[in-house]
Specification:
This protein has 2 helices and 26 strands.
């Protein structure tokens, strides 16, 4: 019986060794976790880690280029670190984080481009932020419009996966309308072809024809041009949209029509379907969170199953 226990322990140790090495050190306290997208659509990740007397581990973003990882303390001195983890989701261990530590690396194969729209689908198991280049004026976070303004970034509370769309080159057209001897300008941003634009003074409504489906359409107007709150029709059927305050006294209305046809924007007391999102908001992500040690526990469970099977086989052979 002692031989069986001893043999089982050896087998368990040999199989479990890679699991133990998968993540070494206590989870790091991250003061900042940030992605930065430059004008050439390159992405760099940055983690600012608080000091610790023990080795700490830091989860990496999916798509991390390990050759680009640099780890320095707040004085700019390079620190020793080890790369651990499996598959696309890795981690690093910092052995002596006795001062605030900065971890930087680049990501690849994360951005996708379809026509003029660039899409970023990414996640992290805790709060993180995304900074955009100066050329990016607006984004769509999980299909909700956000005017970046001077902030040029968003923060994802609680972590999780998010889907971000933005234009490579903003397709903008300006229409001029007159009302009560005043001139107003209506800005329309979309990759869809727009025609038959019209402003109806009697009903104070804007209408135009869209000729492509599943394209973002964003209309920015001066608030006093139409009586808000607003409602939008597509082919006489009310559709949902989001709104953002682009600048003082202006509002941006964004939608993603599923069919081609006529869009009509009007003002009404009926606010069904309206979701207000401003550039000052921190959005809660309604998506599945990412557990820190998911892969480690998955492998660990597999190891336990293998050990149990091996022990059962050995015991049966001894009984025979």
């Amino acid at each position: 019986m002692n031989k069986i226990v001893f043999l089982s322990l050896i087998i368990f140790a040999l199989i479990a060794l890679p699991v133990a090495n998968a993540q070494f050190g206590e989870p790091a306290y991250q003061k900042l976790t940030q992605l930065t997208i430059d004008e050439s659509e390159n992405i760099q990740a940055k983690h600012v880690i608080g000091f610790s007397n023990n080795p700490v581990s830091v989860n990496l973003f999916e798509g991390a280029i390990t050759d680009s990882i640099t780890v320095t303390n707040e004085d700019g001195e390079k620190l020793e670190f080890g790369i651990t983890g499996m598959g696309d989701y890795g981690a690093i261990t910092i052995f002596s984080p006795d001062k605030n530590t900065i971890v930087k690396y680049n990501l690849e194969n994360i951005l996708r481009q379809s026509d003029n729209i660039i899409t970023l689908n990414i996640g992290y198991p805790q709060v993180f932020s995304i900074l955009f280049s100066e050329k990016t004026e607006l984004i769509f976070l999980n299909n909700n419009i956000i005017q970046l303004g001077d902030k040029k970034g968003i923060s994802i509370n609680g972590g999780g996966y998010v889907n971000v769309d933005y234009y490579s080159k903003i397709p903008k057209q300006i229409e001029e309308v007159s009302w009560e001897e005043n001139k107003f300008y209506v800005e329309i941003i979309t990759d869809s072809e727009i025609n038959k634009f019209n402003f109806n003074q009697d009903s104070k409504s804007i209408s135009f024809q869209i000729n492509e489906k599943n394209k973002f359409v964003t209309v920015t107007i001066e608030e006093k041009l139409l009586d808000g709150p607003y409602f939008i029709f597509l082919n006489d059927e009310k559709i949902q949209y989001t709104t953002s305050l682009s600048k003082e006294n202006y509002v941006s209305l964004s939608m993603k029509p599923q069919v081609i046809g006529e869009i009509v924007i009007n003002g009404s007391e009926d606010i069904d379907g309206l979701t207000k999102i401003t550039s000052d908001d921190t959005l809660s992500v309604e998506s599945e969170s990412i557990p820190n040690d998911y892969f480690i526990w998955l492998v660990f469970g597999g190891v336990l199953i293998i050990v149990v099977i091996v022990v059962i086989i050995i015991m049966r052979k001894i009984k025979k």
